[in-house]
Amino acid sequence: MASVYKLCHLQEVPIAQQLIILEFFSSKKRNDVRIPTKNQLTTWDTDILTAYVKNEWQDNSTISLYDLQLKTIILLCLSTMARPRSDVGRLQHRDVQFEFQEQNPISVWIHFREPKETQVKTSTLGLMNDQDICVVSALYQFLQRSQSIRTNLPEDHTLFLAYIN
User: Fold this and answer.
1) For residue 165, is it within any domain?
2) Per-run averaged pLDDT (10 residues), the chain, 165 residues
3) What pLDDT shows up at residue 12?
4) Structural domain tally of the chain?
5) Are residues 51 and 108 in the same domain?
6) What's the pLDDT score for residue 23?
7) C-beta of residue 159 within 8 angstroms of C-beta of residue 138
8) CA dist 56 to 36, 60, 100, 131, Å?
9) Origin, by domain of life (predicted)?
10) pTM for the full predicted model
11) Residue 67: domain span
């Protein structure tokens, strides 16, 4: 049919690009209910990743700054369900605020200014008993150890740093 239409209407826009055709198919697509497949419903076991983090990067004070940054990113993604590139990658240093008790961090508020799916998203995270996989401890250590690198960076600089290897 498209080839006949093309022959009869040489000066017209191709039939597949006609507005009414595009609207029809987009409406049809919105109305179709698609049941997810078994593979799409399968979730992955977070214990595998937390065990890896725990085995590879145990003590925040002894691992390299680069490894501490990786560990912090992984734990942050796991605990907030934020997207690694679009959400965590855009986090700004100024958007992380700790709550202290006796000069030790006990929780952290993280404000995602530009999340992909909403306006502003705020996550509040608390301490975990297992310090090897505690995002509050890892993030606090990361900020403490990267403080000297940040002295000349602008206020809106990203939380995580490039070229610290």
Assistant:
1) no
2) 66 81 78 78 84 93 95 92 78 92 94 72 91 95 93 89 85
3) 79
4) 2
5) yes
6) 84
7) no
8) 35, 11, 28, 14
9) Eukaryota
10) 0.71
11) 43-152
DSSP-H helix ranges across 16-157: 19-31, 38-41, 46-56, 65-80, 135-145
pLDDT at 17: 83
Are 19 and 85 contained in the same domain?
Answer: no
Sheet of strand 96-101, all strands in order from the earlier edge strand to the far edge:
96-101, 104-112, 121-126
Are 66 and 165 contacting, i.e. CB atoms less than 8 angstroms apart? Answer: yes
Residues 93 and 13 in one domain: no
Residue 76 sits in the same domain as residue 8? no
Separation of CA 128 from chain center: 21
Q: Which structure tokens are listed for 118?
A: 């909403």
Looking up tokens 């000066």 gives: 11
> What per-residue confidence (pLDDT) applies to 89?
83
User: Which residue is associated with the tokens 């017209």?
Assistant: 12
